[in-house]
Every structure is written in C-alpha cells, then in structure tokens.
Amino acid sequence: MNRPEVVVVGAGIGGLAAAIGFRRLGWQVVVCERAGTLRSTGGGIGLTPNGLRALDAIDAGRTVRSRAVEQRDGGIRRPRGDWIARTDLNFIRDRFGDPVIALHRADLTSALAGLLPANAVQTGTRVTTVVPGAPGRRARVTTTRGELTADLVVGADGIRSAVRTALFPRHPGIRYAGYASWRVVVPAPAQPVTAGETWGRGARFAILPLPDGRVHCSALASASARRPRGNEAAELIRRFGDWHDPIPELLSGVTTSALFHDDIEELAAPLPSFSRGSVALVGDAAHAMTPNLGSANLALEDAVSLVSLIAANYAAGGGDIPSVLRQYSACRQTRVMRLARRSRRIGRIGQWSSPVAVAARNIGFWLGGLLPAPVTARALDSVLGWTAPVIPASAPAIAEPPLGGD
Questions:
Q1: Which of 256, 310, 339, 370 is 20 to 30 A removed from 7 (C-alpha atoms)?
Q2: How many other β-carbons are positioned within 10 Å of the β-carbon of residue 308?
Q3: Residue 365 pLDDT class (50, 70, 90 cuts)
Q4: Torsion of Cα atoms, 191 then 196 then 200 then 205, to 10°
C-alpha cells in the first residue's frame, strides 16, 4: 500500500493551498512551478472571511493572519477627494466572524510555502503535457525535468493555464475585458492612509494599507484596445497624478520597473467542466475572471473544496477520483460562474465615462452608503458567506495501480 500522490501545477495561492491540504491528509505532494523562484514581488492582496475560512480549514489561517493587517475602514471617493460613501468595516467581522485583512502577496506565498516540506515545491519546472488518465491508469505529467505520474493532478497554473489547454484544447481561451491594470507597493506617506477606492470616468484607483509601513496601489483604466507597453510610470501619473491626496504623493516615486501592468482578461466562455479524468482545475485556470470580487479568495475556496471531497471519498473507502472530481466541478461551477458574471458587471460599471452615467452610478453608491450596515452586510452574503467544508485529518492509503496502470 502506498500513499496517494498528487502533482500540483503552479505554486500560486490556490496551488499552494491545495498542496497544503493534501499534505495534511498524508498524501505525497509535488508542486511544479515554472518560475525559477517562488514569487517574491507583486502587489498587496486582501483576504475576506470566505478566504480566511478556507485557510483555517487547512490549518494555515493563523500563519497568514500573523503577517497581515486588519482593514477597519473603507469607502468610495470621487477624484477630487470627497467621499461618496464611507464604511466602518467592523460590520464584516460582526456578521461573518472574520475581518478583511491585507498583506503583501509575496508574504502570503511565503507563508503558504513555509507550511510545505522544502523539497515539495520544484521551481524551474515547466509542465509541457498532461494526460488525464483513464480507469485503472494514473494521470501523467511531462515536465522539463522529466515525467511524473500521480493519482491526482491539480492544475493551478493561472490565467494562461497549460493544463486547461491540455484538457480542453478547443476552448477559446481568454479575451480582453477592455481595461488595463497597474499595481505597485510603495512606502506609506506621513499622514494616515485609509483604505478605499476612487471612481472616476472610466478609471478607478484603490488604496490598501499593508503591514510594515507599505501601501498597495491599484489602478484600472478603460482602453479600447491593448496598447504598446512604454513608460508605465509616466502613464500612471498622467492618468491619476491630479487625483486627490495622497494619490500624487504615493505615485511620486514610482518607477516603471516597480510597476506591474496587465491587460485585464477573462475566460471567453465558461469551461464545460473544472475536471477531466484525474485532473482538476482551481483558481484562474478554472475560472479566470475580472479582478472585482476577490478571485484569490475563490481560488482558496476551490482548493479546500477539492481536498475535502477527495478526503471524504477515501474516508468512505472509495478511490474513484474522476467521479469525485465531477462532484467538485458541479459544486464549484455554479458559484464561481455567478460571481464571474457579477464581477464582469462591476467592471463594466467602472468603465462608464459618460457624465450622466457616472453621476447615476455615484448616486447609487451614495444611496448604498446611507443603508444600515446590516443591510449592506446581507448584500455581501453571497460572496463572503461561503462556509468551508470540514476536512478529515487523514485519509487511508490506496493500493498500487494495476500492472501497466502507469
């Protein structure tokens, strides 16, 4: 009898969470990451109660919380600085049992990777081929370092997922959503910084305080077509440098080399399934969406849901992984596709540039800000109210596959 084996493709947030979950079950885990090192750069990230519940389910919540700072205030402003709506975020903790926290993405990745054995993550390992397997045969993964076989493969390799392409070669892939993103982490200014978003005409700017005297800045702006890359720092200042304080100060020392610039993309069409054979997809590989509803938290949900269903199957004496993965796909698709549509609508509202449309949008924000916190909280239930499944502490070993099963 051998321990079950899982190969995770991609050492991002969802992939590392899945690896931690399966390691906790006693599985042998290999994580293949195409980059030469784990991501040490990038912007900040906000984790909401649903994501924190997922982390708690794999015993990673305390570690992540220790590296984060709680967000206590929020709101929406106009570019000139006046508040359209302002919110005390303590209502989120009161309703959902956890706050919104923020940390640097690199610190989150480091915290998760630190919960795995040192040799579990193989950097500089690009996956070139994935064969899903069939009854009696294990999945096969070909990498630049050689071939691996496994009882389960988790595709967590992001928006341009090679695993997704291997499973669904006829899928149209990703499409441009009509706007661009700039992200940067800068030192906090002398005056206190409040978390929030500023909505202008076809443009948005978000400020997120991080631990250790840093601030995450994220800008989104409409662009009818992908434009050539250039001096992105100058472009960012051109678009947002005359907005309210402290935005000009936050941007004053930004260099192009420190910026992360992306054209916002999403899946051109939903996938028919989040699995095929003994291969499952999580995070952006499964449901790449616009960045308006916390896709990283959904990736954590995916990982924990997958681990829970597999663990329950083995605890019940099963072992039919393709069948379990079909259950995983069914339980996740309805939720994430609904939220992907909602995120797309929010993005389109953010792209409005007509003065009349923008004024109507701002009135809507203002009216929403007048509602009592419990009413606002109920509107968030469908996003933040997700409950993490219970994961058994261990799962039985499984027998070697039949001769020739590899």
A1: 339
A2: 21
A3: confident
A4: 80
Q: What is the dihedral of CA 345, 349, 354, 359, to 10 degrees?
A: 130
Tens-place pLDDT, residues 198-220: 999 999 999 999 999 999 999 99
Give the CATH class of 178-264. Answer: alpha beta
Angle separating helix axes 295-315 and 321-350, nearest 10 degrees: 170
Query: What is the SS3 assignment for 118?
Result: coil
- Cis peptide bond prior to 246, omega within 30° of 0: yes
> How far is the first Cα of the chain from the last one, in angstroms, to the nearest whole number?
16
Q: Report the distance separating Cα 340 and Cα 280, nearest Å.
A: 19
- Overall pTM > 0.90: yes
Strands (E), 200-300: 203-210, 214-222, 260-267, 275-276, 279-281
The yes-or-no verdict on residue 119 having pLDDT over 60 is: yes
Distance separating alpha carbons of residues 309 and 321, to the nearest angstrom: 10
- 5-70+100-175+267-351 and 178-264 have identical folds: no
Q: Which residues lie closer than 8 Å to 119 by C-beta, 6 or more apart?
A: none
Output phi, psi for 101, to 5 deg.
-120, 160
Question: What sign results for the dihedral spanned by CA atoms 199, 203, 208, 214?
Answer: negative
Fold of 5-70+100-175+267-351: FAD/NAD(P)-binding domain (3.50.50)
Written as one string, the DSSP assignment of 8-28 is EE--SHHHHHHHHHHHHTT-E
- How many CA atoms does the CB half-sphere of 335 hold within 13 Å? 23
Beta-carbon contacts of 72 under 8 Å, excluding residues fewer than 6 positions away, are 88, 89, 90, 99
AA letter at 251: L
Question: Cα–Cα distance between 30 and 305 in angstroms, integer?
Answer: 19
